[in-house]
Each structure stands twice: as structure tokens, then as C-alpha cells.
Specification:
Elements: E1 5-9, H1 10-26, E2 30-34, H2 42-50, E3 55-58, H3 61-69, E4 75-78, H4 87-93, E5 96-99, H5 102-114, E6 119-124, H6 139-147, E7 152-158, H7 171-188, E8 194-198, H8 203-207, E9 217-220, H9 222-225, E10 244-257, E11 280-286, E12 298-300, E13 306-310, E14 315-318, E15 331-336, H10 338-346, E16 351-355
Parallel strand pairs: 1-16, 2-3, 2-9, 3-4, 4-5, 5-6, 6-7, 7-8, 8-9
Antiparallel strand pairs: 1-10, 10-11, 10-15, 11-14, 12-15, 13-14
Helix pairs in contact: 1-2, 4-5, 6-7
The structure holds pyridoxal-5'-phosphate.
Pyridoxal-5'-phosphate (PLP) binds next to strand 9 and helix 9.
Length: 363
């Protein structure tokens, strides 16, 4: 294996999707499977669909195009707010999008009309996380204005938490979302199909039975891909945490002091890292570096290994506790967290290998 490789176990993703969608279904919640961390990889989307998600959501039009080109069926939702400059592409590529700007919604309506379509939207309200969405007291006015746009159908209202501000979904903010949705329904004189309250941060609230009734839509990525809820990043019961594995080759194996020798200044990336003196250690230079991907967020499969640091071409791993078992030319395995997964998926230097027990090739 010359270049680092990310292995993707599609059966584990399917299993995780089934665990999450079964839980959600018991509470009357429909799940959109979020593929943004895997750049809309069509086989991952197919695994999620086999596992029971109702549709696929992604934040990039490029990923949406990838799904469409591969013939991935089902409803497609754009998660990132559409750019005013891209409304025609949005209307042509997805069934629905999340929105908060009237000028964009007006342009989406015109674009949809131009194509003889109606574009579905979920109006986003900010419940305190301070990312996307109108402030709660502006939601009804926005909904009234959007109701009059002929190319737009309001399918729901939604909120996204635990992203920028790390705000935890709880009974109070979810109740607020349901109340706001009811106010919108009263204002536009229509029932909303979706009240979209949850992402992977909401699973614990859901499982506790304290999620207010009325919330009926979730957009779930990390819990399906990595098997974790995102409040404490605890493993989610009944899911695999190792659907993704990153492997890279050992290029050098030497016993060296644990502290640099000589007067020290900045490292290659402008930092002055601290090195604890642990005496002489066995160090492996592994063939994955910061030019390949951000090296934060990798955990060695072998608990005896310790990541010392990384440069543009190398990851340096202390292998002293496993010395004798590791040779030059071996590959070391790592579990990526969400940001490392994104880094590996978006990297042109990291190979991708899809694994499935049964072959799921499209005919
Ligand atoms: C990324 C994203 C999600 C999925 O979040 P996870 O924590 O991966 O479940 C849901 N909604 C929006 C708007 C997103 O951007």
C-alpha cells in the first residue's frame, strides 16, 4: 500500500442506519441520511437507504450531482443554505432545501417557475446555536411572505443545534420549535409535513422519551457514519464505531530520544510543540502527512500506539509498547473522528476502498 487508504464498510453503515431509523420510526420520526462527511459517496448513500433512511441530504451541490449521476434514488435535500448565485442549479438538482433568506427564496421561486417546478423548502429558525436561521420572532413573517411565492412549497420548519454554538437540544428548545411550527401553520393555513428538529445531537433526548411530540423529521449523519451521538461523542448503542478505517504504511522505524536535540525554534507549521522526556522510544514514521489531510482526530487501532505529531509528509507514532510486532512496510490502522473523516474523504491523496459483504453493484 503506497498511499494512505480509507476503507469504508458499507454493511456497517447500513446496520447503523437501520439502528437509527428504527429508533426514530418508533417515535414517528422520518430520517434524512446525511452524506456530507463522505462527499455524497453514492455507495454510502445506497447503504443508508437500505438501512431505512427516507432520503439523502448533503450540503454541497457537487455531492448532490454525484448522487444523481450514480442514479441514487429518493428524495434529495440540500442542507447548506442555497447561494443566491446558484438558485437555478439548486432547483434543478434537489427536491428541497433549507432556507432563511427571503431574497433567495424569491429567486428560487422564479427559477422553479422557469423550470415548471415547485421547489420544497424547510424554513430554518435559530434556536440559539447562532448558525443558520431567522430569529424566532421573524419566522411567521417569513412564512407569510414565502406562502405567496408561486414556485415554492413550504414543507416544514427546522432548526439546527449543537453545531456552531454547541447548544444542546432539550425539551424547552424543541417545544419552542413545535410552537413555532404551529404558529406558521396557523399563519399560512396549511399543515406542515415536517418539523425538522434533530441531528445526531438529538438522539439521547429522543431515546430518553423526553422529545416533545410533533418533531417528526431528523437529519442524521455522524450517528450513522461513526456510530456516535454528538453531545458527548459516546458510542450509540447498537451501532458500529469502526465503519471507517484509515491505513498507512510504516516507512521508517528507529529508536530515538523522545526530545529533539539542539536549540529549538518553530516546527514546519509555525508551532513550538512540547516534547515530554520519556527516554529513548521506538518511533515509526508513517506515510500520511498534513498534505494528505488534517492529522487531528486519528486514533490508532492498537491502543499501545501513541501519535507524537505530524509534518506535511509524515505521521510520527510512538510504537515502543508494541515494539517487535511492527516492521517497516507494515500498515497501521487508525479510526477517524468526524473531522478526520471529512479530511480523508476530501483529500485527493487518500485512496478510498469500499467494502461490502454482499456485492451491491448497480446493474
Ligand atoms: C451536517 C448537518 C446535519 C447532520 O449533522 P450530524 O451531526 O452529522 O448528524 C444536519 N443538519 C444540518 C443543517 C447539517 O448541516
Amino acid at each position: 500500500m503506497a498511499s494512505p487508504t480509507l476503507t469504508i464498510d458499507l454493511d456497517k453503515i447500513e446496520h447503523n442506519a437501520r439502528t437509527v431509523t428504527d429508533l426514530c420510526a418508533r417515535h414517528g420520526i422520518e430520517v434524512a441520511g446525511v452524506t456530507k462527511a463522505v462527499c455524497g459517496e453514492p455507495q454510502v448513500a445506497m447503504a443508508m437507504l437500505r438501512g431505512g433512511v427516507a432520503g439523502i441530504a448533503d450540503s454541497r451541490l457537487e455531492s448532490i450531482h454525484r448522487l444523481a449521476a450514480a442514479g441514487v434514488p429518493g428524495h434529495r435535500l440540500l442542507l447548506r443554505l442555497p447561494a443566491l448565485s446558484a438558485v437555478d442549479e439548486v432547483v434543478g438538482s434537489v427536491d428541497a432545501s433549507l432556507n432563511s433568506e427571503l431574497s433567495v427564496l424569491t429567486a428560487l421561486s422564479d427559477a422553479a417557475r422557469g423550470r415548471g417546478r415547485v421547489h420544497e423548502v424547510i424554513l430554518m429558525v435559530d434556536l440559539g446555536d447562532l448558525r443558520e436561521g431567522v430569529w424566532p420572532d421573524e419566522l411567521v413573517a417569513l412564512a407569510r411572505a414565502v406562502r405567496d411565492l408561486p414556485g415554492i412549497a413550504i414543507r416544514g420548519v427546522g432548526a439546527n443545534l449543537a453545531c456552531l454554538g454547541g447548544v444542546v437540544p432539550d425539551e424547552a428548545n424543541m417545544n419552542r420549535l413545535v410552537e413555532l411550527a404551529e404558529a406558521v401553520e396557523a399563519a399560512i393555513g396549511e399543515r406542515l409535513r415536517w418539523i425538522s428538529g434533530l441531528n445526531s445531537s438529538g438522539l439521547a433526548l429522543l431515546a430518553s422519551g423526553r422529545l416533545p411530540g410533533g418533531i417528526n423529521h431528523a437529519r442524521i449523519g455522524e450517528a450513522i457514519l461513526l456510530g456516535r451521538e454528538t453531545i458527548h461523542r459516546n458510542p450509540w448503542p447498537g451501532t458500529f464505531q469502526d465503519a471507517f478505517a484509515l491505513h498507512a504504511e510504516v516507512l521508517e522505524l528507529k529508536r530515538k530520544p523522545s526530545r529533539p536535540v539542539g536549540e529549538r525554534s518553530q516546527d514546519a507549521f509555525g508551532h513550538l510543540p512540547a516534547f515530554e522526556d520519556r527516554g529513548e522510544r521506538d518511533r515509526a514514521l508513517v506515510g500520511i502527512g498534513r498534505e494528505d489531510m488534517d492529522l487531528e482526530g486519528l486514533t490508532p487501532h492498537d491502543e499501545r500506539l501513541d501519535i507524537v505529531g505530524g509534518t506535511s509528509g509524515y505521521l510520527v507514532v510512538d510504537v515502543t509498547e508494541a515494539a517487535g510486532e511492527i516492521r517497516v512496510g507494515d500498515t497501521l490502522g487508525f479510526t477517524p473522528n468526524y473531522s478526520a473523516l471529512v479530511g480523508a474523504m476530501t483529500s485527493g491523496y487518500v485512496g478510498k476502498r469500499l467494502l461490502a459483504r454482499i456485492s451491491h453493484h448497480r446493474s
